[in-house]
Design goal:
- The chain has helices at about 175-180, 180-185, 240-245, and strands at about 30-35, 40-45, 55-60, 65-70, 75-85, 90-95, 100-105, 115-120, 125-130, 135-145, 150-155, 160-165, 170-175, 200-205, 215, 220-225, 235, 245-250, 260-265, 265-270, 280, 290, 295, 300-305, 310-320, 335-340, 345-350, 365-370, 375-380, 385-390, 395-400, 405-410.
- It has a 4-stranded antiparallel β-sheet with strand order 3-2-1-32, with no helix packed on it. Strands 4-5-6-7 form a 4-stranded antiparallel β-sheet, with no helix packed on it. It has a 4-stranded antiparallel β-sheet with strand order 10-11-12-13.
- The chain has one domain (about 5-110, about 130-410): Methylamine Dehydrogenase, Chain H (7 Propeller), CATH 2.130.10.
- The chain is mainly beta.
């Protein structure tokens, strides 16, 4: 199987219908955060008003927890991707809100883990190199479609896509993606410059169609399937080859699944699937490109989030976009950027954050919204702090400190 270029007549469905889904009701009752860190999983409980939060409760201490997600179809069900203290990648799940856990009987594995040939550049030019394709991290988790209770998707490093149909107990590779000829190139060593390896992330399931999947790969770009992963096509209209290959995170509008938001290495982009063209909207920030600094990108970063009731409202966490790509706030002054008009304009908010000398990183799974009214926004930092805004990102307060390096924050 191979990727097909839509410009060359690839078989795909007509553009998705342009309609809004029902606006979800605001959440009620107590809430919970699941926080994945370098040294364990932690949960923090909050009241409905989100004025009081508990001290973090630890689970799986010593394990590196890349992502932990509560199932919106059954919020007592939680699935986490982790690497044990001994270095073994696996998935664990709980059906009782974290009181008890079960490790996967069959964790994500590629169908063939034998060495294969891939080409790479070195000082002497292109040379063949045999290497073992084997899951190193279960990096991303996404619940399946509402009609497929118990189904989950997982993204790995090196880049791979896996599916579970039994609440995360057993997993199978999505071979339609893995058998694509370009896939070996994308998963070869050195295929991107991510410090701890290329990753498949941001698995999106269309709420209108369980077979419609969109995924992002840190060195392969954004791809789309209309047949539950059997065949795939690139979703890169409007992007250069370089821009198309380096998405950092991708989200889908809750009330309009035809609206996609992408934070990439090159900035913030938006697509409406009816047009199938990415538009660079991050450059619309008032400080979007600093010409005095030689065209430095000020909309670089890792995470992006969308409002559950309005696909025109989105948040990003800008990082220093200079050539050094420090992955830290520019000049040590952290902000969260928000648009309320689909990216035409942006505002930066920092009230409550440190005003200077702040050198944290906010990774791609570390920005979350909670669905309450007023909407709460959360970020987790590499310095082990969780910050919360009760007014859609305008003012911030720290609700947890002293955790290990945070990899993910999700609302349960």
């Amino acid at each position: 199987m191979s990727f097909e270029d839509p410009d060359e007549g690839a078989a795909r469905r007509e553009p998705l219908p342009k309609h809004k889904l029902r606006v979800p009701r605001a959440r009620r009752g107590a809430m919970r955060l699941w926080i994945g860190t370098r040294k364990g999983l932690f949960c923090v409980d909050g009241d409905e008003a989100r004025e009081e939060f508990t001290e973090p409760e630890p689970h799986w201490l010593g394990s590196t927890v890349f992502h932990a997600v509560a199932d919106p179809r059954d919020r007592d069900s939680v699935v986490a991707g982790l690497r044990t203290p001994g270095g073994r990648p696996t998935v664990v799940s709980s059906r009782d809100g974290g009181r008890t856990w079960r490790e996967a009987d069959e964790p994500p594995r590629f169908a063939s883990e034998s060495p294969f040939e891939a080409s790479h550049e070195d000082a002497a030019g292109p040379t063949p190199s045999a290497w073992l394709r084997s899951v190193n991290q279960v990096f991303w988790l996404t619940p399946g479609h509402d009609s497929e209770y118990g189904s989950w998707y997982a993204g790995s490093s090196p880049q791979g896509l896996f599916r579970s149909r039994d609440h995360g107990v057993s997993w199978e590779p999505v071979e339609g993606l893995h058998q694509t000829p370009e896939f070996d190139e994308w998963t070869a060593p050195g295929s991107d410059e991510t410090p701890d390896g290329a990753k498949l992330h941001s698995v999106l399931v269309d709420p209108r169609d369980a077979d419609h999947l969109i995924v992002a790969m840190s060195s392969g770009g954004v791809v789309e399937s209309f047949d539950a992963g059997a065949t795939w096509a690139r979703l890169d209209g409007g992007l250069s080859r370089a821009e198309a290959r380096e998405p950092r995170s991708l989200v889908m509008g809750v009330t309009n699944p035809d609206r996609l938001w992408m934070q990439s290495h090159f900035g913030v982009y938006r697509m409406d699937l009816e047009q199938r063209v990415w538009e660079h909207v991050g450059e619309n920030r008032e400080d979007g490109v600093d010409e005095a600094e030689g065209g430095e990108r000020l909309d670089a970063g890792f995470p992006i989030a969308v409002h559950p009731a309005d696909p025109d409202i989105a948040w990003t966490v800008p990082m220093d976009g200079s050539e050094a790509w420090t992955r830290m706030p520019k000049d040590g002054r952290p902000v969260v950027a928000r648009t309320v008009d689909g990216g035409r304009t942006w505002t930066s908010h920092s009230a409550g954050f440190p005003k200077e000398r702040c050198w944290w990183t906010v990774k791609r799974q570390c920005l979350a919204v909670d669905g309450y009214d007023p909407l709460g926004v959360y970020i987790g930092t590499s310095t082990g702090d969780v910050w919360f805004s009760r007014d859609e990102g305008e003012h911030w307060r720290c609700i947890a400190r002293g955790l290990p390096h945070i990899y993910s924050v999700e609302v349960g």
